[in-house]
Amino acid sequence: MWIGLALVMGLVAACGGSAATGSLQASGTPAGGTQSGTTQPSTGATGAAGTPTSGAPKTLDACSLITADEAAAALGKAVDPGTVPVPGARSCLFSSSVLSTDGVEISLIGLNTFDPNKKSIPGLTITPISGVGDAAYTISLGAGSLVLNVRKGQTTFSTSVLLKSASDSDLLAAEKTLALLILGRI
User: Fold this and answer.
1) Does 100 map to a domain?
2) Domain range holding 157?
3) Maximum distance among all alpha carbons in the chain?
4) pLDDT per residue over 130-151, tens digit each?
5) Which residues pair with 93 in a beta bridge?
6) CATH number of the CATH domain containing 128
7) Do the domain assignments include residue 84?
8) What's the structural domain count of the chain?
9) What contacts 5, CB < 8 A, 6 or more positions away?
10) Partner of 96 for a Cys bridge, out of 25, 66, 82, 102, CB 3.0 to 4.6 A?
11) 38 within a domain of the structure (yes/no)
12) DSSP letters spanning 42-71
């Protein structure tokens, strides 16, 4: 189930723009020799208001951006320590149990896929969010599935709280709380 979720998250990130920068080699290192977990700079990139983005991209490990206790607080139940779903993935999953679909996912996304001005398409609703980072937006897949994408300088990430019983507003509140924690650490 988590591998399927990781594939869906990749699809969601890909819907934000062009193909991700730096494909992964078999070793888990992006082509070009950059370590996994880095965001790639974009020449001439501009923010949501058309202003140039600032700040160098950060080398990050998704599992170090929040703690298991913080993930548990967002989910409302205990979680396992964060794990990378597949080798070389730039995401971390905190799950409530092996057989549960409830959990928290933190993903590092490419700056070139971050687009808060992207129009919604059938099956995906994109909504700009204010007050989080330099720019932020949600992608709703419907049925209580919401992803919050955030940019700070040239570093971009997503937070997703996966809890079937929660409303979109509850999911967004938990994802914003996690995003603010992460923003304070990058």
Assistant:
1) yes
2) 2-15+58-183
3) 45
4) 999 999 999 998 777 899 999 9
5) 83, 105
6) 3.40.1000
7) yes
8) 1
9) 85, 93, 101, 105, 162
10) 102
11) no
12) -TT-B-TTSPBP-SPPPB--GGGSS-HHHH
SS3 25: coil
Q: What pTM was estimated for this model as a whole? A: 0.70
Q: Which amino acid is at 40?
A: Q
Give me 102's structure tokens.
Answer: 């409830």
Burial 120-145 (b: 16+ CB within 10 A, else e): eeeebebeebeebbbbbbbbbeeebb
pLDDT digits (tens, 9 = 90+) for 1-40: 333 343 334 434 434 333 233 222 222 323 333 333 333 3
Please report which helix (H) or strand (E) contains residue 151, including its range: strand 145-152
Residues sharing a CB contact under 8 Å with residue 153, sequence separation 6 or more, in sequence order: 53, 54, 55, 56, 57, 58, 134
pLDDT at 55: 53
Tokens of 21: 């920068």
Tally of CB atoms within 10 A around 9? 22
Q: Dig out the tokens for 174 from the structure.
A: 């938990």
